[in-house]
Amino acid sequence: MFSYLRFEMENSLGIPVKVEIDHKAGLLTYGIAFGGENTKETKRRTMSKGNSDRFIRRWHKVSCNDLIRDLAAYQETQKGDYWQLFVKYDDVDLSISGQRPGASLFDSFIEPLMELLDDTFGITQFVKASRVDRLEIELFDPFPVPEELSFMEGSDECSHVEHVSLSRDDWTLTYTRRFPQGCFHNSYECHCEGEIRQLLDQTSDIFDGGDLFKGHISEDDDPILTFTFHFHDGNQAMVNRSLSKEGTGSQVYDELLDVIGRTIECTVFGGGMFDPDRNGGVDESSETAFEGEGSTKDRYLG
User: Fold this and answer.
1) Predicted model pTM
2) Backbone angles phi, psi at 298, to 5 degrees
3) With CB atoms 3.0 to 4.6 Å apart as the test, which of 6, 259, 263, 285 could cross-link to 86 if both were Cys?
């Protein structure tokens, strides 16, 4: 555990914030300065034992049980003026700085640290309230059941249903599909920290203005997509859009779906045995190996 920590960055309101924390005998003493203030001139407070223990537990999780101190060798290559961090341990001092999150080796550490400081003190506001922390997309395509078959049990469960969720909390992308919804259930889950963070950060930036939170439902019987944006401050926005052969009617929403689809494809098949680009694709010799009578290809593909 560190004995001293100092973190400086401009918060989401554009105000420089400096946080200093001292750790001694299991208790944490802290000072927070805004703008041109000096933390030495601000009133310092000591956390209770319970709050100190809670912070220490979360710090160990954020820093991977202080693995961050072993990265001191990288400090010469990590320079920037957007954020600065100084951590003092018993055996080593770590001093690093970097550019805006999204362009640093330490992004996977700095962002959770910002969240920890925001949650602990409630006034630092490093994280923007409108940041998208979770994005959910649901598709519902009703399947019209002929009247003469409506008496059959389960006839109302033939629709096509899909659900995608991207969560910043656990860096997880989940995808489920039911088609028909009362029969087949396909699901997929992956942890892809960099991809999820980048996609949600880009979504936060693009949708920041609010002009894109408008629904559009066509008069045709097209499937309906429901986008639900969950923001850092707990608010959410829900948008319904029709999905036709031409897309959603919005280039931004179309590109968002495309990026998520390529993320799923890349994390599932990229570099794997089903990747068509692996080793330059399938050559002729591998094709001919499945062409003979009674071949493995015949047995598997019919």
Assistant:
1) 0.79
2) -65, -40
3) 6
